[in-house]
Amino acid sequence: MADVVAHKLLRTFFRRSFWITVILALILSGVVPLIIYRYHLHQYQVESAALLHRFIEKEICFSPHDLLENPKSLEATVSNINVFMEFGDLVEFKLWSADGTLIHAYRAQDLVGHRFPGNERLMETVRTGRTFVEIEDTRDSENLNLKEFGTLVEMYAPVVVDGTVQGAVEVYRKAPKFELLTGHIVLVVSIAVIIFLLLYMLLYGRFRAAATSLIDYDEKLQDAYRSLGLSYFDTIRSLIKALELRDMETEGHSERVVAVSLHIGERLGIPEDELDKLVLGSYLHDIGKIGVPDSILLKPGGLTSEEGAVIRSHVEKGLEIIGTIEFLGPAAEVVRYHHEKWDGSGYSAGLKGTEIPLAARIFAVVDVFDALISNRPYRSPMSFEEAQAMILAGRGGHFDPQVVDVFLEIGREEFEALKKEIAGCGIHHTVNAAVENILCRLNVVADAETKRGV
Q: Is residue 281 included in any domain, yes or no?
């Protein structure tokens, strides 16, 4: 069993891990090329700025404004610029004077001779002597004529003569295009899948052994928990036996009420978990009487109001005893409410009708009936028929009518056969089965909560 569960666990784990790997690989196949492109683009900008600086230092070592008065020098400079543009993969080259006048433009020749003091980046370059490099998307009105070239690297560099900024150069260079190559995707996905397969082969055996060991440990822990629960219950059983030996007239009472209550519960068709509550609660219903003094519990005459209060306190005492043990919790319904009455005149909560849990309603009928046919310090036992008549008289007042109707279907012969079966086999196996069922349900709930927490 553990091996099968471990195999399912591993299969689920690795299937999900595989899809996570694939998803990460697909994400990386898009992100990694983009990161690489950004890095190359930055390097390209640095390289472009360095290339422009070398050209300016070598070819433009004069005031650009002087070119307007010297056509030959302008022609020679333009020739050098054209060579540089072809060599540097440029699409536009503008030469500016320090006052913002356009001296030369490779493409925007119609603007030559005009002054543009509103060009902030140009004025900042002239004022600070700094070089500015950025990406230009060519969508602004100034560069619409460059739109066909797409993304460009835009550069503003100062023209410095004798330590003074005499003008500036504005250059646009084609930027490398971003391409999501199939090779990138195949490479990243392949590496991710290969790493996953290697980890799978290397770790499968260890994961399998660990999962199997964990499941074995969990099963052993559950077995130990059940064993501990039954040990606890054996202690409780000893208390109940001590209580019955203390009051010989009620000896066997717990076993009889368990058997009859279960019999009625099954006839009513209540669910298994409710039957387990009924069995455990019936068995433990009077455990609180262990704290009632003999002088009151065994008193042959009537009880005073104070003594009656002490007797009634066995409900709270019983709840205190079982309240510290988790798996005995389901018995609390019967322990707490088995003295409630259908008409609301019972104790200790004063519930009425269907407000009273079904297990407690069933047990109330059986408990009273068994008390009527048993010896008590204050009276002799009734006959089977007399006790049935008393139960019928309490129908709709003390007892749930439906439960009474089912109970009255039990004849004397059937009841005697049930008593004989109890005397021969006992009800320990029935009570133990209920305890084990409750323990199993608690384990299932604990496992579910653990999974949600994880």
A: yes
The boundaries of the domain holding residue 23 are: 2-174
160 with 257, same domain?
no
In a domain, 179, yes or no: no
CATH of the domain at 102: 3.30.450.20
What does the block give as tokens for 108? 């925007």
Residue 418 burial (10 A CB sphere; 0-12, 13-18, 19+): middle
**Is residue 392 in some structural domain?**
yes
Q: Are residues 9 and 93 in the same domain?
A: yes
Residue that finishes a domain, picked among 158, 174, 190:
174
Tokens coding 238? 């000893």
CA distance 103 to 314: 109
- Per the structure, how many domains does the chain have? 2
- The enclosing domain of 316 has a CATH number of 1.10.3210.10
Percent of the chain that is helix, strand, coil (3-state, to 5): 70, 10, 20
283 shares its domain with 139: no
Of the three residues 174, 199, 220, the one that is the final residue of a domain is 174
- Pick from 172, 114, 181, 170: nearest CA to 148: 172
Residue located via tokens 């540097």: 88
pLDDT per residue rounded down to tens, the chain (454 residues): 445 555 666 677 677 767 777 777 777 766 777 787 888 889 999 999 999 999 998 888 888 888 877 888 888 888 999 899 888 889 999 999 999 999 999 988 888 889 888 888 899 999 999 999 998 765 554 566 787 888 899 999 999 988 899 999 999 998 887 765 556 666 666 776 777 677 666 666 666 666 667 667 666 766 665 666 566 566 666 666 666 655 544 557 778 888 899 899 999 999 988 888 888 888 888 888 888 887 887 777 778 888 888 888 889 988 988 887 777 788 889 999 999 999 999 998 999 999 999 999 999 999 999 989 987 766 788 999 999 999 999 999 999 999 999 999 999 998 888 888 877 777 767 776 777 777 777 665 444 444 443 3
